[in-house]
Amino acid sequence: KNQVEQSPQSLIILEGKNCTLQCNYTVSPFSNLRWYKQDTGRGPVSLTIMTFSENTKSNGRYTATLDADTKQSSLHITASQLSDSASYICVVRGSTGGGNKLTFGTGTQLKVEL
Amino acid sequence: DTGVSQDPRHKITKRGQNVTFRCDPISEHNRLYWYRQTLGQGPEFLTYFQNEAQLEKSRLLSDRFSAERPKGSFSTLEIQRTEQGDSAMYLCASSLRLPNTGELFFGEGSRLTVL
Q1: pLDDT tens per residue across span A38-71
Q2: How many Cβ atoms sit within 10 Å of the Cβ of residue A86?
Q3: Which residues of A touch B89 (CB under 8 A)?
Q4: Which residues in chain B touch residue A98, judged by CB atoms under 8 angstroms apart?
Protein backbone atom coordinates (compact mmCIF):
# COMPACT_ATOMS: atom_id res chain seq x y z
CA LYS A 1 0.00 0.00 0.00
CA ASN A 2 1.26 3.48 -0.90
CA GLN A 3 2.03 5.48 2.21
CA VAL A 4 3.53 8.84 3.13
CA GLU A 5 4.81 9.31 6.68
CA GLN A 6 5.75 12.71 8.04
CA SER A 7 7.70 13.66 11.11
CA PRO A 8 7.56 15.26 13.51
CA GLN A 9 3.79 15.41 13.91
CA SER A 10 4.13 18.87 15.45
CA LEU A 11 6.92 21.32 16.12
CA ILE A 12 7.31 24.59 18.01
CA ILE A 13 10.24 26.88 17.24
CA LEU A 14 11.25 30.44 18.01
CA GLU A 15 11.02 33.11 15.35
CA GLY A 16 14.24 33.39 13.38
CA LYS A 17 15.28 29.78 13.94
CA ASN A 18 15.60 27.13 11.23
CA CYS A 19 13.77 23.82 11.13
CA THR A 20 13.60 20.69 9.01
CA LEU A 21 10.54 18.57 8.35
CA GLN A 22 10.80 14.98 7.18
CA CYS A 23 8.80 12.88 4.73
CA ASN A 24 9.26 9.17 4.05
CA TYR A 25 7.23 7.42 1.38
CA THR A 26 6.61 3.98 -0.03
CA VAL A 27 4.87 5.09 -3.23
CA SER A 28 6.17 3.14 -6.20
CA PRO A 29 6.59 3.72 -9.04
CA PHE A 30 7.34 7.32 -8.18
CA SER A 31 6.55 10.33 -10.33
CA ASN A 32 7.03 13.43 -8.20
CA LEU A 33 6.88 14.76 -4.65
CA ARG A 34 5.20 17.96 -3.55
CA TRP A 35 5.24 20.02 -0.41
CA TYR A 36 2.16 22.07 0.45
CA LYS A 37 1.62 24.69 3.14
CA GLN A 38 -1.83 24.79 4.68
CA ASP A 39 -2.84 27.63 6.98
CA THR A 40 -5.53 26.80 9.53
CA GLY A 41 -8.95 26.77 7.89
CA ARG A 42 -7.54 27.39 4.39
CA GLY A 43 -6.74 25.25 1.39
CA PRO A 44 -3.22 23.88 0.77
CA VAL A 45 -0.84 26.00 -1.27
CA SER A 46 1.98 24.43 -3.27
CA LEU A 47 5.56 25.20 -2.20
CA THR A 48 7.60 22.89 -4.44
CA ILE A 49 7.28 20.00 -6.87
CA MET A 50 10.27 17.70 -7.27
CA THR A 51 10.72 15.02 -9.90
CA PHE A 52 12.90 11.93 -9.73
CA SER A 53 15.96 13.68 -11.10
CA GLU A 54 15.87 16.66 -8.75
CA ASN A 55 17.77 16.53 -5.46
CA THR A 56 17.19 20.05 -4.17
CA LYS A 57 14.71 22.79 -4.92
CA SER A 58 14.32 26.17 -3.26
CA ASN A 59 11.42 28.58 -2.99
CA GLY A 60 12.51 31.59 -1.00
CA ARG A 61 13.21 30.49 2.56
CA TYR A 62 11.94 26.98 1.81
CA THR A 63 14.36 24.33 0.53
CA ALA A 64 13.19 20.83 -0.30
CA THR A 65 15.47 17.85 -0.79
CA LEU A 66 14.70 14.49 -2.31
CA ASP A 67 16.51 11.18 -2.13
CA ALA A 68 14.62 8.87 -4.46
CA ASP A 69 16.85 5.93 -3.54
CA THR A 70 15.92 6.02 0.15
CA LYS A 71 12.45 7.44 -0.59
CA GLN A 72 12.97 10.38 1.72
CA SER A 73 12.37 14.09 1.41
CA SER A 74 12.90 17.02 3.72
CA LEU A 75 11.65 20.58 3.84
CA HIS A 76 14.03 23.07 5.43
CA ILE A 77 12.71 26.43 6.55
CA THR A 78 15.30 29.13 7.12
CA ALA A 79 14.92 32.14 9.41
CA SER A 80 11.38 31.25 10.38
CA GLN A 81 8.67 33.87 10.62
CA LEU A 82 5.40 33.91 12.53
CA SER A 83 3.59 33.53 9.21
CA ASP A 84 5.27 30.16 8.69
CA SER A 85 2.95 28.75 11.36
CA ALA A 86 0.90 26.22 9.40
CA SER A 87 0.60 22.55 8.51
CA TYR A 88 3.12 21.31 5.96
CA ILE A 89 1.89 18.39 3.90
CA CYS A 90 4.05 16.06 1.83
CA VAL A 91 2.29 14.62 -1.21
CA VAL A 92 3.70 11.92 -3.47
CA ARG A 93 2.46 11.23 -6.96
CA GLY A 94 2.77 7.73 -8.30
CA SER A 95 2.96 6.74 -11.92
CA THR A 96 0.04 4.31 -11.76
CA GLY A 97 -3.33 4.27 -10.07
CA GLY A 98 -5.70 6.07 -12.37
CA GLY A 99 -6.56 9.69 -11.77
CA ASN A 100 -6.00 9.46 -8.05
CA LYS A 101 -2.27 9.11 -8.17
CA LEU A 102 -1.62 11.35 -5.14
CA THR A 103 -0.86 10.02 -1.67
CA PHE A 104 -1.03 12.65 1.08
CA GLY A 105 0.84 12.67 4.37
CA THR A 106 -0.94 13.78 7.54
CA GLY A 107 1.22 16.87 7.78
CA THR A 108 3.57 18.45 10.28
CA GLN A 109 1.99 21.20 12.34
CA LEU A 110 4.54 23.98 12.76
CA LYS A 111 4.13 26.80 15.24
CA VAL A 112 6.54 29.72 15.24
CA GLU A 113 6.60 31.74 18.45
CA LEU A 114 8.15 35.01 19.53
CA ASP B 1 -8.78 36.71 -8.32
CA THR B 2 -8.73 33.76 -10.75
CA GLY B 3 -8.03 30.96 -8.29
CA VAL B 4 -10.28 28.08 -7.30
CA SER B 5 -13.33 29.32 -5.43
CA GLN B 6 -15.65 27.34 -3.20
CA ASP B 7 -19.03 28.18 -1.78
CA PRO B 8 -20.15 28.24 0.95
CA ARG B 9 -17.05 28.49 3.11
CA HIS B 10 -18.94 27.25 6.14
CA LYS B 11 -22.13 25.24 6.50
CA ILE B 12 -23.82 24.11 9.68
CA THR B 13 -26.68 21.69 9.25
CA LYS B 14 -28.74 19.24 11.23
CA ARG B 15 -28.36 15.53 10.79
CA GLY B 16 -30.53 14.22 8.00
CA GLN B 17 -30.50 17.40 5.93
CA ASN B 18 -29.04 17.65 2.44
CA VAL B 19 -26.19 20.02 1.64
CA THR B 20 -24.59 21.10 -1.61
CA PHE B 21 -21.16 22.64 -2.18
CA ARG B 22 -20.04 24.42 -5.30
CA CYS B 23 -16.57 24.69 -6.78
CA ASP B 24 -15.45 27.01 -9.56
CA PRO B 25 -12.04 25.90 -10.85
CA ILE B 26 -9.40 27.96 -12.61
CA SER B 27 -10.98 28.61 -15.98
CA GLU B 28 -8.53 26.80 -18.26
CA HIS B 29 -8.16 23.76 -16.00
CA ASN B 30 -9.84 20.64 -17.34
CA ARG B 31 -9.38 18.47 -14.26
CA LEU B 32 -11.33 19.00 -11.07
CA TYR B 33 -10.93 17.06 -7.82
CA TRP B 34 -12.88 16.78 -4.58
CA TYR B 35 -11.14 15.88 -1.32
CA ARG B 36 -12.32 15.54 2.25
CA GLN B 37 -10.11 16.55 5.17
CA THR B 38 -10.68 15.99 8.87
CA LEU B 39 -8.76 17.64 11.67
CA GLY B 40 -5.12 16.60 11.84
CA GLN B 41 -5.31 14.52 8.69
CA GLY B 42 -4.25 15.02 5.11
CA PRO B 43 -6.85 15.38 2.37
CA GLU B 44 -8.57 12.16 1.26
CA PHE B 45 -9.50 11.71 -2.38
CA LEU B 46 -13.23 11.55 -3.13
CA THR B 47 -13.62 11.93 -6.90
CA TYR B 48 -12.29 13.68 -9.96
CA PHE B 49 -13.51 14.93 -13.32
CA GLN B 50 -11.84 15.47 -16.62
CA ASN B 51 -13.99 18.06 -18.32
CA GLU B 52 -17.56 16.87 -17.63
CA ALA B 53 -16.70 13.19 -17.24
CA GLN B 54 -16.43 11.76 -13.74
CA LEU B 55 -13.51 9.40 -14.19
CA GLU B 56 -12.96 8.04 -10.72
CA LYS B 57 -14.77 7.75 -7.40
CA SER B 58 -13.30 6.71 -4.08
CA ARG B 59 -14.87 4.01 -1.97
CA LEU B 60 -15.21 6.80 0.61
CA LEU B 61 -17.93 8.26 -1.61
CA SER B 62 -21.02 6.50 -0.33
CA ASP B 63 -24.37 6.47 -2.10
CA ARG B 64 -25.31 9.59 -0.17
CA PHE B 65 -22.63 11.57 -2.00
CA SER B 66 -22.97 12.72 -5.58
CA ALA B 67 -20.82 15.03 -7.64
CA GLU B 68 -21.46 16.65 -10.98
CA ARG B 69 -19.66 18.85 -13.43
CA PRO B 70 -22.36 19.35 -16.04
CA LYS B 71 -20.63 21.62 -18.50
CA GLY B 72 -17.04 20.90 -17.67
CA SER B 73 -16.72 24.13 -15.72
CA PHE B 74 -18.05 24.42 -12.14
CA SER B 75 -18.81 21.35 -10.05
CA THR B 76 -21.19 20.55 -7.22
CA LEU B 77 -20.86 18.03 -4.42
CA GLU B 78 -24.12 17.04 -2.76
CA ILE B 79 -24.43 15.10 0.47
CA GLN B 80 -27.86 13.65 1.19
CA ARG B 81 -29.15 12.70 4.63
CA THR B 82 -26.07 14.08 6.35
CA GLU B 83 -24.55 12.25 9.29
CA GLN B 84 -22.31 13.58 12.04
CA GLY B 85 -19.41 11.67 10.50
CA ASP B 86 -19.70 13.83 7.40
CA SER B 87 -18.39 16.81 9.37
CA ALA B 88 -15.16 17.78 7.63
CA MET B 89 -13.54 20.28 5.32
CA TYR B 90 -14.41 19.59 1.69
CA LEU B 91 -11.65 20.75 -0.61
CA CYS B 92 -11.86 21.28 -4.33
CA ALA B 93 -8.78 21.42 -6.54
CA SER B 94 -8.16 21.86 -10.23
CA SER B 95 -5.31 21.19 -12.62
CA LEU B 96 -4.37 20.98 -16.24
CA ARG B 97 -4.02 17.50 -17.70
CA LEU B 98 -0.25 17.53 -17.97
CA PRO B 99 1.93 14.43 -17.91
CA ASN B 100 3.13 13.83 -14.36
CA THR B 101 3.52 17.37 -13.07
CA GLY B 102 0.02 18.80 -13.41
CA GLU B 103 0.06 20.98 -10.32
CA LEU B 104 -3.02 20.99 -8.11
CA PHE B 105 -4.49 24.33 -7.10
CA PHE B 106 -6.77 24.08 -4.10
CA GLY B 107 -9.69 26.23 -3.10
CA GLU B 108 -10.17 27.51 0.43
CA GLY B 109 -12.51 24.68 1.27
CA SER B 110 -16.07 24.33 2.52
CA ARG B 111 -16.27 23.40 6.17
CA LEU B 112 -19.29 21.27 7.05
CA THR B 113 -20.55 20.82 10.60
CA VAL B 114 -23.37 18.33 11.10
CA LEU B 115 -25.16 18.71 14.44
Answers
A1: 999 899 999 999 988 899 999 999 999 999 999 9
A2: 20
A3: 41
A4: 55-56
Nearest chain B Cα to A97, which residue?
B56
Average the pLDDT over B30-34 and give the result. Answer: 93
- What one-character-per-residue DSSP string does chain B give? --S-EEE-SEEEE-TT--EEEEEE--TT--EEEEEEE-TTS--EEEEEEETTEEEEE-TTS-TTEEEE-TTSS-EEEEE-S--GGG-EEEEEEEE---TTT---EE---EEEEE-
Partners of residue B60 in chain A, C-beta under 8 Å = none
Q: What is the pLDDT confidence band of residue A100, given thresholds at 50, 70 and 90?
A: low
DSSP collapsed to 3 states, A44-71:
CEEEEEEECCCCEEEECCEEEEEECCCC
Q: Which of A68, A77, A69 minimizes the C-alpha distance to A108?
A: A77
B43 interfaces chain A, CB cutoff of 8 Å: yes
Using alpha carbons, select from A15, A23, A104, A105 the residue that is nearest to residue A61. Answer: A15
CB-based contact, B74 to chain A, within 8 Å: no
pLDDT tens, residue by residue, A27-36: 888 888 999 9
* Residue B4 at interface with chain A, using a CB cutoff of 8 Å: yes
CB contact, 8 Å: B11 with chain A? Answer: no
**How many Cβ atoms from other residues are within 10 Å of residue A98's Cβ?**
9
